[in-house]
Amino acid sequence: PVLRKEAEEVPMDYPDLKQLVANMFETMYNADGVGLAAPQVGLSLRLLVIDADVMGDDFPECKGFKRAMINPVFLEKSEEEVSMEEGCLSLPGVHEKVGNKIRVKYLDEDLKEHEETVEGFAARVVQHECEHLEGHVFIDNISGIRRQLNKSKLNSIIKGTARCSYKAKAVGK
Ligand code: NI
Cα of 73 to ligand 1 centre, how many Å? Predict the structure, then answer.
């Protein structure tokens, strides 16, 4: 249910914020992910971590792209005709193609404000994680037909019978 809920703003006096950010990076690396949003670890907070450096060979914009984003806000969002694979640690084994470019404002783990334009695959990762903060998952954006094709995988995730290489908790029975 936390994945489907709009996440709360992170209060400026949130205790042990840096430790939480460090833990989220560790959890993400452990699952070989390039991004992780707080709702994916059961916390309804507007906080996400990204390290897309591993994609750097295929997508140069991802080289060194490591960020913690607290209370991120989109200033601009432009859809592009780029096509790239998208997946989610909360939906193991399900991948779809999408792409775009964004301008985002956020606080880092030191609560320092940043504003930057992010493009290509890195933009897609930021947007993917931000969608988690709105209670959306990426399959919400795809057509009914594509969703139908992933239906059995999605059902097995809900039932908890889907296999993946990291610890995951099923939402269903
Ligand atoms: Ni995800």
Answer: 18
